[in-house]
Amino acid sequence: MKHIYQAGSNPNAPVLLLLHGTGGTERDLLGVAQHIDAEASILSVRGNVLENGMPRFFRRLAEGVFDIEDLKLRTEELKSFIAGAAEQYGFDRHNVVAIGYSNGANIAASLMFHDKDVLAGAMLHHPMVPLRDLQLPDLSAVKVFIAAGDNDPICPPQETNELNELLTGAGASVELLWESYGHQLSRSEIEAAKAWYRKMFRS
Ligand code: MLT
């Protein structure tokens, strides 16, 4: 997969896996990652699917309607990519924390829905429920931060609550931040994600 890897100055810090939103690239979240942990290594990936020229991590049939077969395939593909990158770059694949926005948050959630140890944690900015009717693995070692907007036209509040319940029900530790915004990534939610991350992974 097209990506950027930057080795950090602190080998004990998690590797930050950056997953952009629809129409984004592997460059979008570099500034956010630098702000959250300037010492961490970064693996930033570009989604392999194109929708009218816009990169995504999996196909959708319509706005908010996902192609579940493709989502499963792409989740597996990303999981193998992370394992391969860990070998290539020599990082610990059990110490990966995702930062995902929108479509990128959705595939990060799908990684956790399918596997208990691909991600040690995730900051999910405006995620949806990636898929339903799946037995989630035991996520009791996984830490998740969710930022949501109560005026989000793409992800309604009940879907955020459903995602929180599914992850919590599988044993994950979840912190949920509500803001009175829409689907955009706000400065204040990045600050909240940073505070959460420092507490969970760097204290
Ligand atoms: C998705 O398709 O993953 C969600 O609708 C969010 C987005 O627009 O990327």
From TrEMBL:
InterPro entries: AB_hydrolase_fold, Dienelactn_hydro, LYPA1-2/EST-like
Taxonomic lineage from the root: Bacteria, Bacillati, Bacillota, Bacilli, Bacillales
Lineage top rank: taxon: Bacteria
Domain spans labelled Dienelactone hydrolase: 77-178
The entry's keywords: Hydrolase
GO molecular function, one term: hydrolase activity
Entry protein name: Alpha/beta hydrolase
Species this protein is from: Paenibacillus septentrionalis
Pfam families (alphabetical): DLH
